[in-house]
Amino acid sequence: MPGFPLAPADSLGQDAFTSLVVSLPRPVSVYDDRRQLVLTNPALADFVGYRLDEFDRVDLARLMHPSDAPRWFGLVRGVLDTGTAHAGYARIRHRNGNWLWAHGFASTFTSADTRFVVLVWQDRTDDVWNNPRLLDEADVASADVVRSRAIIEQAKGALMLVYSLSADAAFDLLTWRSQETNTKIRVIAEQLVLAFGDDIRAPTSFRDRFDALLLTAHERRSR
């Protein structure tokens, strides 16, 4: 299988563990005691959007967000130093250009008197968007995520108002435009919000009716 293992590792060899890692459905990478990547599996290639015949030429370190790479590789170092499992979040660039929030769980094992670290990856992008506080536990700066989410919420609100959509339908519409134009949702949302204020003027009659609604909102009750 091309690209697996990635580097010579006599102590790993082609034993049962290597075969197991390659066959796992979850993205997995294995590092040696020098923190060098020595083994990955096809699920990891798929995770970042590459074919197997391309993946052996991909530098995984360059797929890491520059702000998160030291923290990510710190997981490997921490496991080797302490012998205990570590977990954390980092941004990984998918081949399509989007950033994935990956959660990594790292643990150690010994083979032929050599210590290795197994890192299991999981895509938690949707979870992080829905709850940026997940990142607080990993001590990852989440301000950019919060800002991006805020601008998306503003764009959703504009779409809900103009087209009388639900929140889910508004997000689906943003997603559709993102996919059709190969543009990140955050960028679509940001430009939409900026243009909304500059190019669209609500009629005076609409603003008057909305003024009345705002001033009487405290008197309304859910039916």
Shape category? elongated
Distance between the termini: 62 Å
Low-confidence stretches: 1-12, 139-143
Q: State the helix count.
A: 10
Q: How much of the residues is beta strand, in percent?
A: 15-25%
Q: Count every beta strand, where a strand is a DSSP E run of 2 or more residues.
A: 5
* SSE arrangement, N to C: HEEHHHHEEEHHHHH
Average pLDDT: 77
- Report the C-alpha radius of gyration, rounded: 23 Å
How would you describe this structure to a colleague?
With 223 residues, the chain is of the alpha+beta class. It is built from 10 helices and 5 strands. The chain has helices at 16-23, 42-47, 52-55, 60-63, 69-82, 125-130, 143-163, 167-181, 185-199, 204-216; strands spanning 28-31, 37-40, 86-93, 99-111, 114-123. The protein has a 5-stranded antiparallel sheet, with helices on both faces. Helix 7 crosses helix 8 (167-181) and helix 7 (143-163) crosses helix 9. The longest helix has 21 residues, at 143-163.
Which descriptors would you attach to this protein?
223 residues; 10 helices
Brief summary:
By secondary structure, this protein is α+β, with helices and mostly antiparallel strands.
